[in-house]
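Q: Hi! First time doing this. I have a protein sequence and I read that you can turn it into a structure. Is that right? Here it is:
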Amino acid sequence: MVQSFQKINKVSGTVSLAGDKSISHRALLISSLADGKSYIKNLSDSDDVKSTINCLKSLGIEIEQNKNELIVFGRGFRGYKQPLNALNCGNSGTTARLLAGILSAQTFESIIVGDISLSSRPMKRIIDPLTQMGSKISSANEGRLPLHIFPAESFRAIKYNLPVPSAQVKSAILLAGLHLDNETAAIESQQTRNHTENLLDLNIIKEEGRITSSVSRRNYPKPKEYFIPGDISSAMFFIVLALLVKNSELSIKDVSLNSTRIECLKLLIRMGGNIQIEEKGLSNNEVYGNLHVRSSQLSNVKIDKQIIPLIIDEIPILAVAGVFADGDFELRGASELRVKESDRIKAICANFFKLGLAVEEFEDGFGISGSIKKQFELFNSYGDHRISMAFTILSSLLQNGGKVEGFECVSVSNPEFLKQLKTISG
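A: Yes, that's right. Below is the predicted 3D structure, encoded as structure tokens:
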């Protein structure tokens, strides 16, 4: 599907977003482990989260929709039922990796599959630590899906130093460790998202440049109520648009302000963005609040490699901001972009090249300089929701608009994206 977009001349109003995708996955999985009913408000309506729901139902978890909240009937410690068929995670890497951690601790065989995109993404990074814990996992195609998980003969606690910064790998280890009496520790040298730790209320130790998250059966979840703050990654597309369109002002309500998720906002503020952050409350250790954004003249700044794990999902739209900012944009230390839903480095560079920009592609990033020479273009989403949304925003900034091929993949994270965009467009 090719979607056309006209230039947006003003952004105004208020937008509220469905729940953060990362938190939604974890709230569902943790609720399924608890023994009893948990209530989740403002759950993400993304296709990815629907994949998690469908997998949990296949594992015997009853889930009901009651007006504006979801009720999850958790089955308690090792209470999952053996699924009749392979568990299809669709496009969701979070579903596949986190669920693998839980399934490694169960007493039955299971198989995890996904779509073509997910089946190309690396799973060895979770196979290695889970195997160290005693799990037996066979994989196809050099550590990729499908994963066949067998009951462990002896499941044991480990201390694992993450070789690659990854909240998904960390979470898989911690969710597996919930099933053991002894403490399992996931150790990071670079901070990644901490939603799993927050929702489980885990003990975190920071010392000598290392961050250690520890878990055991003492942390096993109990039924509770969850309010999921709005998705900050989805909000970023509208934030950048409001910053770049003249005479614009936008408010975003009840959005996640988790400290591991707002590095993208801090970067835009460093670039000169007029963004006011208003903390409003706390839900299951997750900070949320409101954002107020006004048109700004941006200037590119040096991006520290240390923050890359904290902005990895926002890089496509940050790159769009960089194109319209003063000075050259350069990003390095982001090779993880190569193994997302698409090769995002390649996708970003190919689309920017169409505009006549000077684009330099590196193995771990890219550089952009020069000015836009073409004011209308057909961009390729490469089947990647974040590429699709980023170049929708870019199309909306061009004098003659633009088109995005494969636009429909936005439903992976935000099915309401187009409706929201129209609501705030003057």
